[in-house]
């Protein structure tokens, strides 16, 4: 099976009356010449690391070596626990976990590239939050990871998951689409709904540039992980309500690629444009590197 079309994955799953995750698991076992249980075992290891990263960053005194980040996951958690959130505890917990995983990354902790280290907080935050809220077991979360992975593979094959190649739309955008896909499947949505959720999430971040302050994956990357998690929830909510993307998902992915190709090098992880070029960012650059 080729991973060059989300729509095709959805179509095959619909025809075979299976979830996308079941289709992908079976195919990967054949391609990798391993048993399905072995393949799931590898994904369980990923899930375990994801779960740990969403917890390790929640420390009030945790700071990165640059001093640019740390402590925000703790602040978000406090807001959730004290009932000070606007959108309720579910989104608040997801934001906390997204910040935690990203801050763990900034502090050189262990994370899972999902699909990159810079976007490592989005998929784990969404999965761990709904896993806790809906009391899902690890088997369900592991299967959702196969759906998310399939979406990531299509985007990587047909566009890019690299900020240096396609801007942050390719990193946080791809991660958000992967998370939205997993969320829809976990909530019992159809394969077609999975496709619409991917399209909606990606459309919402088209053109997002990669402009890390001082060239570090901290500012604005960490807060964009929180944004990406929220975007995944919005896209999934819309798709599950029966709202469809007018532009097919594969065309959205192609649009993301063409936009990335048009971006100036200054907006693709070089720290020469965007937020990285602001006066404050330049001050940070001088403070950190001299």
What would your notes on this structure say?
It is a single chain. By secondary structure, this protein is an all-alpha fold. It has one domain (6-56, 112-289). It is 64% helix and 0% strand. It is built from 13 helices and no strands. It has helices at 6-16, 20-31, 36-56, 72-81, 89-106, 122-133, 138-158, 163-166, 168-186, 191-203, 221-240, 249-262, 279-289. The radius of gyration is 18 Å and the shape is globular.
Q: Helix and strand succession? A: HHHHHHHHHHHHH
Q: What level of helicity do the residues show?
A: 55-70%
Largest sheet: none
- Class by alpha and beta content: mainly alpha
Total domain count: 1
What would you call the shape? globular
Low-confidence stretches: none
> What is the terminal-to-terminal distance?
51 Å
Rg, Å, rounded: 18 Å
DSSP, total strands? 0
Beta-strand content: under 5%
Mean pLDDT, nearest integer?
98
Number of helices: 13
């Amino acid at each position: 099976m080729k991973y060059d079309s989300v729509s095709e994955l959805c179509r095959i799953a619909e025809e075979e009356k299976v979830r996308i995750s079941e289709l992908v698991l079976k195919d990967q076992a054949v391609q990798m010449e391993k048993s399905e249980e072995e393949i799931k075992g590898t994904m369980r290891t990923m899930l375990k690391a994801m779960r740990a990263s969403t917890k390790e960053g929640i420390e009030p005194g945790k700071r990165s070596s640059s001093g640019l980040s740390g402590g925000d996951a703790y602040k978000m958690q406090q807001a959730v626990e004290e009932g000070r959130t606007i959108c309720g505890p579910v989104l608040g917990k997801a934001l906390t976990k997204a910040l935690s995983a990203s801050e763990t990354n900034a502090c050189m902790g262990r994370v899972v590239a999902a699909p990159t280290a810079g976007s490592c907080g989005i998929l784990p935050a969404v999965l761990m939050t709904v896993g806790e809220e809906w009391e899902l077991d690890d088997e369900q979360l592991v299967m959702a990871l196969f759906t998310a992975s399939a979406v990531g593979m299509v985007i990587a094959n047909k566009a890019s998951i690299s900020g240096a190649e396609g801007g942050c739309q390719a990193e946080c955008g791809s991660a958000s689409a992967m998370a939205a896909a997993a969320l829809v499947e976990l909530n019992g949505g159809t394969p077609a709904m999975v496709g619409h959720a991917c399209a909606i999430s990606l459309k919402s971040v088209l053109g997002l540039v990669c402009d890390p302050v001082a060239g570090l994956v901290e500012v604005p990357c960490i807060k964009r992980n929180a944004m990406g998690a929220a975007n995944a929830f919005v896209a999934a909510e819309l798709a599950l309500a029966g709202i469809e993307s007018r532009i097919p998902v594969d065309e959205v992915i192609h649009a993301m690629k063409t936009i990335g190709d048009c971006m100036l090098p200054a907006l693709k992880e070089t720290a020469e444009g965007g937020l990285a070029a602001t006066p404050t960012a330049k001050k940070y650059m001088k403070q950190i590197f001299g």
